[in-house]
Structures are given as C-alpha cells and as structure tokens.
Amino acid sequence: MPYYIFVAGGVMSSVGKGAATASIGRILQNKGYKVSAIKIDPYINVDAGTMNPIEHGEVFVTDDGTECDQDVGNYERFLNESFTTDSYITTGRVYQSVIAKERNLEFDGKCVEVVPDIPNEVINRIKKVGQKNKSDFVMIEIGGTVGEYQNLLFLEAARMMKLQNPKKTLFVLVTYLPTLRIIGEMKTKPTQTSSRLLNEAGIQPDFILGRAAYPLDAPRKRKISVFCNLDPKDVISAPDVDSIYEIPLNFEKEGLGDRILKKVGAKAKKKNGKQWEALVKKIKGNKKPVKIGIVGKYFETGDFSLMDSYISVIEAVKHASWANNRQPEIQWLSSQKFETKDASQFKKLKNFDGIIVPGGFGIRGTEGKIKVIEYCRKNKIPFLGLCLGMQLAAIEFARNVCNIKDASSAEFGTKSRNLVIDFMPEQKELLRNKKYGATMRLGAWNCEIKPKTISSKAYGKKIISERHRHRYELNNDYRELLEKKGMVMAGVNPEKDLVEIVELKNHPFFVATQFHPELKSRPLEPHPLFKEFIKAAIK
Ligand code: GLN
C-alpha cells in the first residue's frame, strides 16, 4: 500500500503549492521511489475545459484528453511521467459519480449523504491512482486555501484517510510569510492562523513549508514550531527562486526528503539526484540570452498581467533554450497592438530572435496575430505557431500568397465563404445543439511526418504522437492550393487525414502545428520542435 502525502495551502492562493507538490514528488523519486500525483480542484466544473484562461490559467491536457489544471503539467515536468484523467479530481467530478451511483442503486437503498459518501468517493479515487500506477507515494494537492468553504470536503477526506492509515498519511501545509517593507521583519502570524484553520478541520500538519521572499531564519522556525505544534526541523524554507526547478534542491538542503522518509519509517532506496542537480547547474550557468516574443491575448487582468495562461509554452521555451545553452528572455506582446497600420509597431519584432503565436479561442486579437505572422514570413524571423497559431498561419498564407482575400476560420463567425479553417462534419451536429463540452479533438493523436522537412529533422522519426485541444481543422478543400503555392503539409494524421503541421520553405524556420507540442516538453526531455526553433532563433 502506498504512502499518501496531502499538500494544502494557507494564507493565500498562488503560493506555489503545485511546484511544492511536484518538488516533493521529485525528491522522493530521486530516492528511488515511484511517485504519482493528483490535483484536487474544489470547483464544480467537471474539467478545466470550459474555463477562461484569465480566470484559471492554462488548461493542461493529458494524453487521454483530460482538460485539467496546469499543476498536472508541473507534475509531469518534474516527475518526467505522463499522468491520466485519474490525476485530476474536481467537486463536479466527485458529485457526478456519486449521483450516477445513486441512480444505479449502488448504495443499496441507503440514504446518500454529503458526509461520508462524498469524502469516500474522494478516497476511492485517490487510492485508485496509487493502485493503478503501483506507486510508492501518492502526492495529493488540495486546491484553494485552508479556511474556505469550498475545499472542506476534501480536507475531510484527507482526515478520514489519516484515520484509516495513520502511519502512511502525511500532511504538508504551504503558507506565505510576508515581510512588510516599512517594518522589515518577516511575520509568522498568518502561518499560525492557517495552521489553526487546518487543525479545525481535524488535521495537524507534519510539515510547514514557508513560502517567502527569503529563507526562514531560526527565530521564525522556532515560533512556527511552538505555535503550530511541530518540530522546528519540519518547518522548511521555501524562498523565492529564479527557476522553479531549484525548489527540490532547496528542500533537500533542509533535509525534507529524509524527514519524510523517517516519519513513515522508510529508507532511501538509492541516491539519484545527480540528473536534477546537473539540470539546475545548467539553468544557472547560461548567461547568453535568446530573445523570444510571445504574441497572445490572455495576459491582462486589470492592472496586472498574468503569465499563467501560457505556462507550458513558457516552460517549453525555457527547456529548449537551456538545452541550447542559452538563457531565454521572454516578452509578452499583446496581439491587439498589432491591429494597426503603424509600421514602427512591427519593426519591434526585429528585436526578437524568434516569435511564437500560441493557442487561443475566439476572434479577438486574431487580426493582429495574422499581421505578425505575415511580418515573420516576409522578414524571415523564426516563427513557431501553436494550434490557433497554425490556423492563423494557414489563413495568412491563403490571404496573402494564394490571394483568397476573405480566408477565415469558422470559429470567427464572419461571412467569409472561404473557411480555410473549419470544423469536421461530425462536430456540426453537436455544436448545433450547443453541446460545447467534448466537441474538441483532445489528447494524443498520431502524426505522420513528411521526409526532408524541418519537422522530420527535429523529430528524427516518422510517426509521432502529440496532444491536441481544438475544435477546428485545416479544411482539406484548400490543401492542394496551399501546397501549390508553397506551404508544406509536413505532418498529417493518418487515421483522419487531418493536417497537423505546416511549414514554409525558403525561410530559416517557419513551422506551425495543430497540436500543442509544449504540453510534452520536460526539463529533462526538452521538446524536439522547440529545440529546433531555438536553434534557428540563435542562428
Ligand atoms: N480556437 C481554435 C480551435 O478551437 C484553436 C484552439 C487552440 O489554440 N487551442 O480550433
């Protein structure tokens, strides 16, 4: 039976529970254990697919096509493993299956109640992951912040699991310690309060990870130890870092891995941290920059800009840059700023070594992206298009090279008669009935790569598998014309004959994919297309 480690957060959201969960997993993996991870999201949504990225950040997609929280991406990147739909639990999913069981008379006529039936369903799901993956450790991150109403039932499930397996279940609380500029002292009170809120749910944390601008000093650790009722050695510093991949090393500096093993009565099976140490050394050693511009629209929220919406793209750029011995300098370019005739706006693009147009939904910002793509095409700036970025590359080419002036996508609701991007017939019926859930091409699909293309050089093989998340496709009626005018259909899905990659010749690097290669990039295994793109950018 595996060990279970629950990670909850206190004080505020966005303290980095996901990176902390993934990092603890990595530490245990480095000690020779098999680790799985689960993200629990407290909202009613069944999956993350129907949420706006500005509200929720990136929607990550697993091989089996689950649209889930971006933290699952963190787990995959840190653990270098692929997870499935089982690694994602939401309130919606839990209630949905309890109600389905009730309708099937699976409760034998008993009254079905919120407690214990909902926590029991959560427990069953957690155990299933451990069994299916034959894990030694299952990391469970509980979304939200302790003290809020939404995640109470999940804390209840955690408490019940501890009761069932006291020696095999641990709790980690990730909190935040603010340092007010005028006072100049790091304060522990919010951490104390959070720990008490966790106690109210019947849970005593085994570890407290103190997120802060700096490492926690001895007096801070002592205070937290006394007021939160744990050994000062179990109060672990989690200071701000330049790269999240440093976090496992920081935790290890404080002995977290051995403390965990000691608590559950296990010993390290082997020492396997070298690869990760080498990675961090490489990350820190690179000085020379490579400048990449990302043209998107999900950055701005009020006076702030968010990077979360494109986290996998950012991480993939980083992995590939490090692999090419460069330090990435990423800049956000708001697509709507390019909906202009002002040439100086476009000249700025020449400051970049490469430009990415990532995925997106809806018409807003698309004309600006098309202009950027045109500029990259004409000025030979290395260009990587991802999903919507590929669709717009095809539209740009159709308009400006094939002379189909009104080329567009069915998604944009224009009156265009030339839908170079359109949906597949079988989807039309679903959409007509407003069934937006599950009308997308999701998860892993095969792609056959054409020889002698940039993609074939990058991948070095003929059949690849990549993850998808989109509703529309390149319309095969236009394929011949696009090809005749010089667009290369460098990758095609063999089962449904759908275009997966387009490229241009006579250009240092112009590649656009219908799939999302960024979802499979890992720090220890950078993605081949991103690596090739960065290589071209450096050149
Ligand atoms: N909006 C486009 C589609 O649905 C592209 C999706 C994406 O970029 N992920 O096909």
Describe the overall structure.
The protein has 539 residues and is an alpha/beta fold. The protein has 2 domains: 3-278, P-loop containing nucleotide triphosphate hydrolases (Rossmann fold, 3-Layer(aba) Sandwich); 287-538, Rossmann fold (3-Layer(aba) Sandwich), CATH 3.40.50. Helices cover 37% and strands 22% of the residues. It has a 9-stranded mixed β-sheet, sandwiched between helices. Strands 5-2-6-1-7-8-9 form a 7-stranded parallel β-sheet, sandwiched between helices. A 3-stranded mixed β-sheet has the order 16-17-20. Helix 5 (114-132) packs across helix 6 (152-164) and helix 14 packs across helix 15. The longest helix is centred in the N-terminal third of the chain and has 19 residues, at 114-132. The radius of gyration is 25 Å and the shape is globular. The relative contact order is 0.11. The mean pLDDT is 93.
Shape: globular
Low confidence ranges:
none
- Total count of domains: 2
Give the integer mean of the pLDDT values.
93
Summarize the structure.
By secondary structure, the protein is an alpha/beta fold. The protein contains 19 helices and 23 strands. Helix 1 (17-30) crosses helix 9 (247-253) and helix 5 (114-132) crosses helix 6 (152-164).
